[in-house]
Amino acid sequence: MTRAILLPFAVSLLGFSGPGLAQNVDFNLTYHVERTPAARLSIETCSNAVAQTARQAGLRVDVKNYPGQLATVVGGRDGSGAFVAQCIAVDGTTVSVIQGIDYRKQKGSLGEFADRAFEAVKAATK
Question: What pTM was estimated for this model as a whole?
């Protein structure tokens, strides 16, 4: 009986989320993904390249390392946007995922940062 009541309730909640609300939010997402053999790019080298590029851009930076698995670099600039970079170790491959989120409809400084950070990671590849 509770499932019969909860299901329509859950479905009605979906009407309040998703595309309807997203249309009212002004943001722009820049997104890069690259797979590189781990022998050519470690997760540490990947995260260091992103962190150094962020510091040079004057962005707030926080780095978390999970040796042999994952390194994350997050940060941004108050009022402008945020970035998230993940350097992931998967079966002899380093996967780099770099996202820049600008708090406006058009690509801005964080999207441009994501482009520069992606280029820095590629340049760090041996």
Answer: 0.80
